[in-house]
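User: Predict the structure for this protein chain, please.
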Amino acid sequence: MKQKKLANLLKLMIIGVGVCGLFVYAMVIPPLGRAMLFAVMLTASPCYVALVHSWKIMSNIANDDSFTIENADLLAKIASLARIDSVFLLAWSVLFFTMKLINLQILVVALFIVFIGIVVAAIFAALSHLVLRAADLQDQYDLTI
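Assistant: Here is the predicted structure, written as structure tokens:
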């Protein structure tokens, strides 16, 4: 599969994730109540910033700039956003549980989502490291020609 086609396919997936996120934030979250709604809506911001960074990475890939320091930096930013979002969700969930604003089942779901966020952060941090290494190798290769 050519890079441009792959990048466009991945951009479609990014749009799909964004639409699914809008559905979850608009339809699923509001029944939780106003107190929880505010906290959950704040968690949406880092997610959509990460989607914007992902879009930039896909544009770079489409332009045959896969292994660049810019992509490594964007991947590192996505990892940081996932970590921040996970910590934020954990803190709000524990706070709301101790205030009895959410029940144990919602806390367990939130903890599962926090775990997924931590896994995503680790994956993107590893990808950032690998892309940075590949960018260094690419630069060395370009200098030898």
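Residues 39 and 95 are 11 Å apart (CA to CA).
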